[in-house]
Amino acid sequence: MNKGKIKLGLIGGGPNSFIGPVHRIAAYMGERYDLVGGVFDIDYEQSKAFAEKLELDASRAYKDLDDFISGELSRPADERIEAVSILTPNFLHYPMAKRLVGEGFHVICEKPITMTAAEAVELAELVEQKGVVFSLTHTYTGYPMVRQMKAMIAAGALGKIHKMDAQYYQGWINPFIHEKDKRAGVWRLDPAKSGQSCCFGDIGVHAFNLLEYTTGLTINKVLADINTLYEDNPLDVDGTALVRTTDGVRGIVRASQIATGEENNIVVTVYGDKAGLRWEQENPTYLKFMEEGKPAQILKPGNPYLSEFSLESTKIAPGHPEGLFDAMGNIYSGTAQAIRKESYRDGAFPTVQDGVRGMNFIEAVLESSKNGQVWVSI
């Protein structure tokens, strides 16, 4: 059995990647991983140059996934890469994850997990069969104050939940969407690369995940209205979904990539019969606790009044801001605990089942909107 640092490989995440540095820094944060090699770019020369820049062994800068798998499996078991992070465009997540899981690698994957719900179910069954760890990077679940929110709700701080609201607003696609030639060149609007959905597949699913993660409730019905803005645009760029849980709790998921001027405006709010909680991603060190008949309180990370889960997820002293890198680092740390068969808390990292839930939600949203804004069961 391997011990010590986990040997990590990357598929994607090379010189032109936005998310690549986030994953690399997150992996190093907890000092649980050692980046060894990978397929860093579709251009082999760029991939090799990137590996050289990172001062990695040149023999472990691979040409493609087949080369990666054969190269690593030819090495002694205690020298092989153990976990692989998939940081490619959406359409490659499923085939790459399926190959890697089938060969016994642990996988850390960007979302969406697959292009369809059926593929997600198939992948989940393979993960269980092979006994590997599969971590899906719903990064926002790694924030200390989101974990505090989860712990407080589980402890009954809000009383009986009766309303929940999550939004994820961006405006990044606004400069491209209004001209036919420009929007045709955006890969996230290409179903062959992005999948069935742009807005809800990319960001709406994060809002959905945060509601289920923080409340512990299961959303089983949606009624959605999505907007492509232009008839020749095949994928959604905006939409709203009413949601209901198995317990009958009502809520709403709002997502937009045409919210002009917005950057990464995520807000999740949960109300109970005693109190409410609100967290905003652009102000991630504040958790607002609103009790009936009392002044609102602002809870901040690193303080002794917080839950053990929140404090374990905090890396620096109170008063110092933590952000996306820290949140991703917490997910990598939780994944490492699972890979090394150590004890870890529920919610330490999103699993393959969270991926299945997300794909089921996306498909239910699309079906509801297509059929004239009707209730659809997940």
UniProtKB/TrEMBL annotation:
<dbReference type="Pfam" id="PF22725">
    <property type="entry name" value="GFO_IDH_MocA_C3"/>
</dbReference>
<feature type="domain" description="Gfo/Idh/MocA-like oxidoreductase N-terminal">
    <location>
        <begin position="7"/>
        <end position="138"/>
    </location>
</feature>
<dbReference type="InterPro" id="IPR055170">
    <property type="entry name" value="GFO_IDH_MocA-like_dom"/>
</dbReference>
<protein>
    <recommendedName>
        <fullName>Dehydrogenase</fullName>
    </recommendedName>
</protein>
<dbReference type="InterPro" id="IPR051317">
    <property type="entry name" value="Gfo/Idh/MocA_oxidoreduct"/>
</dbReference>
<dbReference type="InterPro" id="IPR036291">
    <property type="entry name" value="NAD(P)-bd_dom_sf"/>
</dbReference>
<dbReference type="GO" id="GO:0000166">
    <property type="term" value="F:nucleotide binding"/>
</dbReference>
<dbReference type="Pfam" id="PF01408">
    <property type="entry name" value="GFO_IDH_MocA"/>
</dbReference>
<feature type="domain" description="GFO/IDH/MocA-like oxidoreductase">
    <location>
        <begin position="146"/>
        <end position="277"/>
    </location>
</feature>
<dbReference type="InterPro" id="IPR000683">
    <property type="entry name" value="Gfo/Idh/MocA-like_OxRdtase_N"/>
</dbReference>
